[in-house]
């Protein structure tokens, strides 16, 4: 699938390049390609804010780095901290566009929820990002820079896990998202393990097929949100282009095909009186048979202007228990960052 808004030109920076690409650039400017290893380590492991602070390089080399490999300079325009220890950051890019990224304190670790687009074209009516509309894709470097600026803010503490659960649909920005993953997983730089990364998608069938072939094999979460096809098309308008049965068949193949034992997390947001009936729960457990994974149920997080209601906790518990009766693993996830509007479905920026 082609990237949306490819006509928007964003000047590339160091964070847009893989280590191999940096080697190629260094070779063209008559510098040792091995310097790429050093630059990756300095940019992604330390608290580096500019090439100019590296006093072990000559001024001439610094000028070359600044000209041919300029660092993307995103800034944290706003920061809020919640009572549960979560923090929401507004990251502003050079063109003035902003995304929100959320740092969650989970156990002893820190999970960063990052965005892949400014806004979202999927248009889910219960999601603040979907309701704000779509402005543009982020480049690989802009995705990576969210990790860098938050890492710098919390240094010397480290981010332990990444989830692409923020603003946007990662599979619509497939090329840049996948490149960002390779940069973030490079062992000379940030060195995130694939086991410490997860992506969330509404299940765009042709891109999911491509992802199954190309990887890398990070964690995968698929937003289902309904067991009735017509309701799912209303709740996830963009995903309505692909039949629910076809998506479920693909997930069975994804988790069992070619001798691989992969798992998938099925995401299901509970909307009171819409998709939270016991019949919905029972059918959900039935249609997921043959898929290796679990259901992650979360209560709707309030969004300004959206006419949905958050179910009571006891109702959500009953929903999860009904799924479990089918033998399919299901869990009820507590909302985090709710008090700072940083919970699932609450991220947005206002450009009106």
Topology:
Layout: H1 19-28, H2 35-45, H3 59-68, E1 75-81, E2 87-92, E3 98-106, E4 109-113, E5 117-119, H4 128-132, E6 134-137, H5 140-154, E7 161-164, H6 174-185, E8 197-201, H7 205-214, E9 219-223, H8 229-235, H9 244-256, E10 264-270, H10 278-287, E11 293-299, H11 313-324, E12 330-333
Parallel strand pairs: 4-7, 7-8, 8-9, 9-10, 10-11, 11-12
Antiparallel strand pairs: 1-2, 2-3, 3-4, 5-6
Helix pairs in contact: 1-2, 5-6, 7-9, 10-11
Which features would summarize this protein structure in a list?
single chain, 352 residues, alpha/beta, TIM Barrel, two-stranded antiparallel ribbon, globular
Question: Short description, anyone?
Answer:
By secondary structure, the protein is an alpha/beta fold. It has helices at 19-28, 35-45, 59-68, 128-132, 140-154, 174-185, 205-214, 229-235, 244-256, 278-287, 313-324; strands at 75-81, 87-92, 98-106, 109-113, 117-119, 134-137, 161-164, 197-201, 219-223, 264-270, 293-299, 330-333.
Describe what you observe in this structure:
This protein is an alpha/beta fold. The protein folds into two domains: 18-68, no CATH class; 76-340, TIM Barrel (Alpha-Beta Barrel). The chain has eleven helices and twelve strands. The strands form two sheets. The chain has a ten-stranded mixed sheet. The chain has a two-stranded antiparallel sheet with strand order 5-6. Helix 10 (278-287) links the parallel strand 10 (264-270) and strand 11 (293-299). Helix 1 (19-28) crosses helix 2 (35-45) and helix 5 (140-154) packs across helix 6 (174-185). The protein is globular, with a radius of gyration of 21 Å. It starts with 18 loop residues before the first helix and ends in a 19-residue tail after the last strand.
């Amino acid at each position: 699938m082609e990237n949306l808004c490819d006509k928007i030109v964003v000047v590339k920076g160091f964070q847009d390049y893989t280590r191999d690409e940096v080697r190629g650039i260094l070779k063209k400017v008559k510098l040792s390609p091995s310097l790429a290893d050093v630059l990756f380590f300095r940019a992604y492991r330390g608290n580096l804010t500019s090439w100019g602070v590296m006093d072990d390089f000559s001024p001439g080399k610094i000028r070359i780095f600044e000209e041919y490999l300029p660092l993307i300079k995103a800034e944290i325009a706003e920061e809020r901290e919640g009572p549960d220890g979560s923090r929401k950051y507004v990251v502003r890019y050079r063109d003035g566009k902003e995304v929100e990224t959320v740092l969650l304190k989970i156990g002893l670790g820190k999970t960063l929820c990052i965005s892949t687009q400014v806004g979202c074209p999927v248009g889910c009516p219960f999601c603040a990002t979907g309701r704000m509309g779509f402005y543009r894709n982020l480049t690989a470097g802009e995705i990576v820079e969210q990790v860098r600026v938050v890492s710098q803010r919390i240094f010397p503490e480290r981010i332990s896990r990444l989830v692409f659960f923020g603003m946007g649909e990662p599979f619509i920005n497939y090329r840049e998202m996948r490149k960002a993953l390779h940069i973030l997983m490079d062992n000379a730089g940030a060195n995130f393990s694939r086991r410490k990364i997860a992506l969330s998608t509404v299940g765009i069938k042709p891109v999911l097929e491509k992802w199954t072939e190309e990887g890398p094999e990070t964690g995968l979460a698929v937003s289902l949100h309904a067991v009735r096809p017509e309701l799912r098309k209303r709740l996830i308008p963009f995903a309505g282009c692909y039949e629910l049965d076809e998506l479920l068949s693909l997930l069975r193949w994804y988790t069992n095909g070619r001798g691989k034992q992969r798992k998938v997390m099925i995401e299901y947001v509970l909307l009171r009186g819409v998709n939270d009936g016991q019949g919905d729960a029972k059918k959900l457990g039935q249609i997921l048979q043959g898929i290796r994974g679990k259901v992650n149920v979360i209560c709707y997080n309030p969004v300004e202007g959206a006419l949905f209601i958050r179910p009571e906790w006891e109702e959500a518990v009953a929903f999860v228990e009904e799924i479990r009766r089918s033998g399919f693993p299901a869990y009820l996830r507590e909302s985090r960052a709710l008090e700072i509007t940083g919970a699932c479905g609450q991220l947005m920026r206002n450009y009106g």
